[in-house]
UniProtKB/TrEMBL annotation:
Key words, A-Z: Membrane, Transmembrane, Transmembrane helix
Transmembrane segments: 174-196
Keyword presence, Transmembrane: yes
Keyword match Membrane: yes
Protein name according to UniProt: Uncharacterized protein
């Protein structure tokens, strides 16, 4: 179980190391001088055998914290940039300054830095040999251990030479990628919804147009069947139906037609308010119409219902 795991804290000096086993169940912080065991070594092979023996003696050992002595770490202060930099730009600024500070290429060093609360503002930069960190990374992988920390403490500041900044940047990039993918997914779903909704509206209005065309054909057939010499009322009915057949826009359909001399009342629907008003104006401007008036317009689901009173000239 993870609660039974342990870690080893190692203080590394040239030709000597001190270590302490920290039990996970207690998680007490190690002391700098108490309970540490001193081990002398001559080369890296001695360190390898030490870790191998330690792993056998403490089967629950899973992690290493490596603290480097000041003999293995170098420190320099550097002025803080005059311009405001992002975290990534600040890392690049420090990396570009390593050769000037330590007379070594950044390919040979691992570095870390902290901001100092001083005036003027400055950065404290710490470096160690890249071979040291790489060796302990390889050693931890060899024995299945996690390297939690490789660094030092100087003037109340902690420096960690593991590539935690790069890992943090990768995590940030991954979070941005997840956000962008999620946003694209949501936008795609929204556009699909709009497309489906638009197709549904198109089918609905197409059906209403077909019904209007069928009604228009029916009215035309009725007009053809009227008897000769019709009465004045019949003439007005015929005249009004012919007028509707000629003037009715494609976006308006009639649901009800009633004739109560001298007025004609119609009820219909449309998808556009302006088309209803224009239709009324077309009728009012016709010489056969004495008066045309929209009595009522109201919303009904996805269309408009209207009522009109029309009075024809005798």
């Amino acid at each position: 179980m993870v609660f039974n795991n342990s870690r080893v804290v190692i203080f590394l000096e040239p030709n000597q190391l001190r270590y302490q086993i920290i039990e996970a169940k207690t998680r007490k912080e190690e002391s700098h001088n108490k309970n540490f065991i001193d081990i002398a070594y001559q080369d890296l092979a001695d360190i390898d055998r030490f870790i191998e023996n330690l792993k056998q003696q403490v089967p629950r050992l899973t992690a290493i914290e490596l603290k480097l002595s000041d003999n293995l770490v170098r420190y320099q202060k550097i002025a803080y940039p005059d311009i405001e930099l992002t975290a990534t730009e600040l890392v690049t600024y420090v990396q570009a300054s390593l050769y000037k500070l330590f007379q070594q290429s950044d390919n040979l060093l691992f570095f870390d830095f902290v901001s100092l609360l001083s005036s003027p503002k400055a950065l404290m930069v710490a470096v160690c040999e890249r071979d040291i960190v790489n060796y302990w990374l390889d050693l931890s992988r060899k024995y299945g251990l996690t390297l939690l920390f490789v660094g030092s403490h100087f003037e109340n500041n902690s420096f960690n030479f593991l590539p935690w900044r790069a890992q943090k940047a990768k995590q940030h990039q991954f979070q941005i990628l997840i956000f962008v993918v999620s946003l694209i997914g949501m936008m795609t779903c929204y556009f699909i919804y709009l497309l489906i909704n638009a197709q549904s509206d198109f089918d609905h209005y197409s059906q209403q147009l077909s019904e209007q065309q069928a009604l228009q054909q029916e009215l035309t057939l009725k007009l053809a069947g009227y008897i000769p010499n019709p009465s004045p009322s019949q003439k007005q009915i015929e005249q009004s139906l012919q007028l509707f057949s000629d003037k009715l826009p494609a976006t308006i359909w009639l649901n009800l037609y009633s004739y109560e001399p001298p007025k004609i009342k119609i009820t219909g629907g449309s998808i556009n308010y302006v088309d209803i008003i224009n239709f009324n104006q077309l009728l009012s401007a016709n010489h056969a119409v004495k008066k045309s008036q929209v009595k009522n317009i109201e919303n009904s689901h996805e269309s408009l219902l209207f009522q009109m009173d029309i009075e024809l000239n005798e």
